[in-house]
Amino acid sequence: MSEHTTDTEAPQATDGRDPSPFEDLAKFMEIPRVSGLALAPDGSRLVVGVQNLSPDGKKVVSSVWEVDRDGGAPFRLTRSAAGESSPSFLPDGSLLFAAKRADPDAKESDNGNGDNQGLWLLSARGGEARLLAAPPAGIGSVAVARKTGRIVLTARVMPEAKDLDDDAARRKARKDANVTAILHTQARIREWDSQLGPDGTRLFVADAPGAEGKLELRDVTGDLGPVMDSFAVSSDGSKVVYGVLAALPNSEHVAELRLLDVASGTSTLFAGDPEHDHSPHAAPVISPDDSTVAYLRSDLDTFEATGKPTIHLQPLAGGPSQALAEHLDLWPQGLVWAPGSSALYFTADQLGRAPVFKVDVATGEVTRLTGDRAAYSSLHVTPDGGTLFAIRSATDAPARPVRLDTATEDQEPFLLAAPGDTVPLPGWVEEVTATAEDGTVIHSRLVLPTGAEGPAPLVVWIHGGPLMSSNAWSWRANPWVLVQRGYAVLLPDYSLSTGYGQAFVDRGKGEGSGTAFHDIMAATDAVIDRPDIDGTRTAAMGGSYGGYLTNWIATQTDRFKALISHAGVWNAQLRTVSDVPWFFRQAYGDVMLRPEHALRWSPHLYADNVSSPMLIIHGNNDYRVPVANALWQWQDLQRRGKEAKFLYFPDENHWIMRPQESKLWYETVRAFLAEHVLGEEWQQPDLV
Ligand SMILES: CSCC[C@H](NC=O)C(=O)N[C@@H](C)C(=O)N[C@@H](CO)C(=O)O
């Protein structure tokens, strides 16, 4: 039953002159995509990353744009065929960015030929950008000390290398011998679509760049292992707090924070207790007065409960930590200090949105600053403490920069202009609720088409994670591409979704897909009786964890006319060969030690039950949900004579990255739904 609906933004229609970018997928791929913000230390300049299609349409190229803080037109700062990303600022307002560009000043022996990601500087006084550093394997993350301009960056280096020249020689020897083998000595060997090793991450420090010349990079940590969490730098650059994943003997890992004294190169454990308390400590930020480190400490994930992150404060000089706003039933993320060091800003999923919050450090009092139906990220505060800049998106609004006032509760944002900030939508969003069997309220967003001539067919699009909420704009799982074709799309926040309190997250624990399945069915039942929905023409689809749930749905009900599973688990045993097997072990049961739990919810054991036509989609280089799942599922369905198609991407991973392959993904999804939900003839997509 649908308890109530709430109208959201007013419908936006196309103007009738241009075909909608949600109809013409070539145009959809051309919409610029905004990601991340950087604010100059004096607050005077704001820049944003923008991704565009390359002229030949074969790849995405990013560039850095300057945003007008008062809403005027943005302008492009950087331009090259390979693109530029990760902008940050020096104290004098000069811009740093990462780019694979050839160094015009390079000597033949230099590592500046554009093969690797270098750190570039565009002076505040103008002129051409110049290369500051290009380690052999490129740069990773970059941070700048606010007062001195000292630069701290990560780079991957062969573990035995004495310095970056030695690293270059070792890499060349492997390349010349055509060797790519890796000898692993610890459990973590892959991440998403990347091999980890044989190189590891190190932290490098360099003094602020002079008017000419390259940075003198000093290795200040040596090898930190295959994966590093984020790091924070004190205002003078003398201290760095960084997160590492320490390997434990039983193939588990613990995320701990270490404190580096840059002058002496001494690194000590700052937060975390690998001997006794394996709870993760991550995402450190140092207060502007250099007194305090704020970070997120989570309880350990167990089979019964998911670790809840809590803000902790700890003196930079050492001493016990103290939890802040401990009883807040939210999952804070993206911590940012207020300039006076008396408050922190953060975002957190909350009831289908991700507002901006402020927490007072002395009292723990929490204030919500945004009251609109949106998800915020990438917070930056001006040095006078009066203004916040952020990225805002929503189910019905692509990401764009916005300006907020730090003193106003539940405000509407001031929208700033950036490429791709406005697209004509072929429908609108309603917030709907349903009641699960145990009385729990399940929140969803229902995206509806404008101009429908009768009840709309319904697609239930199930988010991944599962520890997230479908509260933001998505380019990978974009409902508008289906709404344009007349479908209504339901985006349910089932149990295990964030933003509805810890009890809601833990409600589905230990039950694999069981509770989530019933929640999704309750959400579906609540909308199919609406006069604007055609409950006889329905489909369900999802990616990643949403793909797993789609696979589970396939074995539990025949109510859907089509099911589309992207990168979904089919055989729960294969979670053991994921890049993060410990996450799946802790979260969903250990296949080896508790097979009765893990296998109870494994779709492959119920393959005989599948009756809805299925489209399986998988990338060969997916290490998060290995492709063996799709191969196994394909054989299971083929051998049983089930109606199915398999869209296989030999060169893609958990996500379909190349623009033309992403376009093909949407084309195939639309063709499959049209065949089975609308009863149209199968239209073979071009290029396959
Ligand atoms: C450090 S392990 C995190 C695992 C993560 N789950 C978070 O809730 C995850 O990767 N889950 C995948 C199975 C998944 O569903 N991924 C989603 C969201 O990241 C996706 O769309 O790829």
Automatic annotation (TrEMBL):
Domain Peptidase S9 prolyl oligopeptidase catalytic residue range list: 473-677
Region spans: Disordered: 1-23
An annotated GO BP: proteolysis
GO molecular function, one term: serine-type endopeptidase activity
Annotated Pfam families: Peptidase_S9 (PF00326)
Known role: This enzyme catalyzes the hydrolysis of the N-terminal peptide bond of an N-acetylated peptide to generate an N-acetylated amino acid and a peptide with a free N-terminus. It preferentially cleaves off Ac-Ala, Ac-Met and Ac-Ser. Also, involved in the degradation of oxidized and glycated proteins.
Name the UniProt record assigns to this protein: Acyl-peptide hydrolase
Lineage: Bacteria, Bacillati, Actinomycetota, Actinomycetes, Catenulisporales
